[in-house]
Write a structure and sequence with these properties.
Blueprint lengths: L1 E4 L10 E4 L9 E10 L2 H8 L15 E9 L11 E5 L8 E5 L3 E3 L13 H14 L7 E4 L5 H12 L3 E6 L2 H9 L4 E4 L5 H8 L5 E6 L3 H10 E9 L12 H7 L2 E4 L7 H14 L1 H5 L7 E6 L3 H9 L6 E5 L2
Parallel strand pairs: 8-9, 8-11, 9-10, 11-12, 12-13, 14-15
Antiparallel strand pairs: 1-2, 3-4, 3-6, 3-15, 4-5, 5-7
The structure holds NADP nicotinamide-adenine-dinucleotide phosphate.
Keywords: NADP, Oxidoreductase
InterPro entries: ADH-like_C (IPR013149), ADH-like_N (IPR013154), ER (IPR020843), GroES-like_sf (IPR011032), NAD(P)-bd_dom_sf (IPR036291), Quinone_OxRdtase_PIG3 (IPR014189)
Protein name: PIG3 family NAD(P)H quinone oxidoreductase
């Protein structure tokens, strides 16, 4: 088969479409012929040499895909050859074929085409596990999503609205904020021109955000704590603004606040399977009912993954960039 390989870390040109051995499914795994993959920010870090795949994972990038099952390994009974699926991966989605643990497979949701389903697994699992399973966002609470027009952000807005929460977002341009509003965001904050702490307070009668989904890490740590409501929960999933920040413990204590931080990729198979099962139970019906949909910015042929990385690195997208297999 062919896959995007990274012979040497570097810029987008480091991504090379090359012939590689076919993967073979083991116990509890299936082989999926990939129809589409999708780009995640983590893939860029992997390409640059800053984010190695976890032990045992495929060396090729790609944390999600959609496609058809072409082979099942021993011990797989819930899935069959020919099933159309999408999958959460620890790697290997930028390839013509990928091996997937059965617990990380999802059926293509009703009302979603096979290609677009590739835009779902990573963002839905990340948002559901952090915002709902860890931070327990409840109806009528306020969620602040940083990077509202990102792959993650566009899904977070829709899921929070679907459960009846109020949503505030930050983004860097008016056009991106407009797209967030179309998805249901109620409070629109341009992070280049406005102070999100002040804007969130103003929009919540001084209360603040009950849950914050944060991609920035260190740079926003102090201001995120300031923007939290009493009993607020800050869920950190990214470090785009640095790794080490100073935490004002007194401020957090005064809020009776909580901070969580998780990474999906390195979680054990059992935890990923539990998240995938929760997503299938809670999110798949929302997709089938049309309350939530994948937001696809554009499709790029997989061998030209470098072009897709350029788009994402320049933040020229809203939602997800798909890589379509030849
Ligand atoms: N922990 C996990 O398991 C996990 C899983 C998936 C993703 N993530 C993380 O989630 C984040 C989003 O991932 P993605 O793939 O959806 O990324 P993406 O589509 O590339 O989006 C990145 C976003 O960062 C925003 N941004 C840049 N500077 C900002 C600032 N100062 N304030 C607020 N937002 C800012 C950009 O907004 P503009 O375009 O408006 O500038 C853009 O929306 C990344 O940090 C990623 O690493 C974590």
């Amino acid at each position: 088969m062919y896959a995007i390989t990274i012979p040497e870390p570097g810029g987008p040109e480091a991504l090379v479409w090359d012939e590689v051995p076919d993967p073979v499914p083991g116990e509890g795994e299936v082989l999926v012929e990939v129809v589409a993959g999708a780009v995640n920010r983590a893939d860029i870090l992997q390409r640059q040499g800053f984010y190695d795949p976890p032990p045992g994972a495929s060396p090729y990038p790609g944390l999600e895909c959609s496609g058809r099952i072409v082979e099942t390994g021993p011990g797989v009974s819930a899935w069959a050859v020919g099933d159309e699926v999408c999958a959460l991966l620890a790697g290997g989605g930028y390839a013509e074929k990928v091996v997937v643990p059965a617990g990380q497979l999802l059926p293509v949701p009703e009302g979603v085409d096979l290609k677009s389903a590739a835009a779902l697994p990573e963002v839905v699992c990340t948002v559901w596990s952090n915002v709902f399973m860890v931070a327990h966002l409840r109806p009528a609470e306020t969620l602040l999503v940083h990077g509202g027009s990102s792959g993650i952000g566009t899904m977070a807005i829709q899921l929070a609205k679907a459960v009846g929460a109020k949503v505030a977002v930050t983004a860097g341009t008016k056009e991106k904020l407009d797209r967030c509003a179309e998805l249901g965001a109620d409070i629109l904050i341009n992070y280049r021109e406005q102070d999100f702490v002040e804007e969130v307070r103003k929009a919540t009668d001084g209360a603040g955000a009950d849950v914050i989904l944060d991609n920035m890490g260190a740079k926003y740590l102090d201001r995120n704590v300031q923007a939290l409501a009493v009993n607020g929960r800050l869920a950190i999933i990214g470090m785009q603004g640095g790794l080490k920040g100073e935490l004002n413990i007194a401020a957090l204590l005064g809020k009776r606040g909580a901070i969580s931080a998780t990474s999906l990729r390195a979680r054990p198979l059992s935890e990923k399977a539990a998240i995938v099962a929760a997503v299938r139970e809670h999110v798949w019906p929302l997709l089938a009912a049309g309350h939530v949909h994948p937001v696809v910015d554009r499709e790029i042929p997989m061998p030209d993954a470098a072009a897709a990385h350029r788009v994402v690195e320049e933040s020229g997208h809203v939602g997800k960039v798909l890589l379509v297999a030849p």
